[in-house]
């Protein structure tokens, strides 16, 4: 049997994609209010689960089920190039799925639940019969949940070893909703290819201008709600900080909307980091919310 080289396996797992869920996991850890002292191993184990395991699994699954398309569009990728021989792309996806589940079991029941949902969405996104990626509404929602919402909840659950506070669910859900818009930004660069192979991304379905407007609404609206919630939870400074970050994004959105096809990479590169900065600000707002902090046992 021919085996793939470790470098090909690593390329298949795409380490560059691991940052978003790892960042969201960190937001969950912060929002839990649990001090890191004495819990460092939980932080490290959770980051490994969010990035090198669950996220990496999603990348392997996606590349396996996209191998025929990649053979046309990106023949240098590990599977179509032959550096991942035979069915090893599928084997890696299955092995990483199993390892992710086993790893999650040492971090508590709520982490296991989150891992199961995340892995199920990863397979449903790419694999038939669901192939959620064929429709921008469903596919972007699945990726947003896997990259932002579920890792955030996992980070909180890892530290708390129990069901997180409802406010953590609220923030994770809102920023996950906003990530739907981030996923739409990634689709502008492949409008022609998606149209040719039958992927109904939002830019393909709605046209570039309408899809750009939808992406901006999806990103901005949840942050407005976050600001209102932070004010209600008695965190006006954090709310002001998120409002400031949203104002910066709004200025960028105005420029992006004038020519979304030309400026999608620019907005992804500068607007998205501002968006995820607001996630961490919101996480710290919860960490220092008096009633939440009082409920956490160090």
Automatic annotation (TrEMBL):
TM region positions: 12-34, 40-65, 109-125, 137-160, 166-185, 206-231, 237-257, 269-289
UniProt keywords, alphabetically: Cell membrane, Chlorophyll biosynthesis, Membrane, Transferase, Transmembrane, Transmembrane helix
A GO molecular-function descriptor: chlorophyll synthetase activity
Signal sequence annotation: none
Subcellular localization: Membrane
Main location: membrane
Gene3D superfamilies reported in the protein's UniProt record: UbiA prenyltransferase
Recorded coiled-coil stretches: none
EC number(s) given by UniProt: 2.5.1.62
Pfam families: UbiA
Membrane topology of this protein: Multi-pass membrane protein
InterPro entries in alphabetical order: Chl_synth (IPR006372), Prenyltransferase_related (IPR050475), UbiA_prenyltransferase (IPR000537), UbiA_sf (IPR044878)
Name this protein carries in UniProt: Chlorophyll synthase ChlG
Lineage of producing organism: Bacteria, Pseudomonadati, Pseudomonadota, Alphaproteobacteria, Rhodospirillales
Chain's gene name: chlG
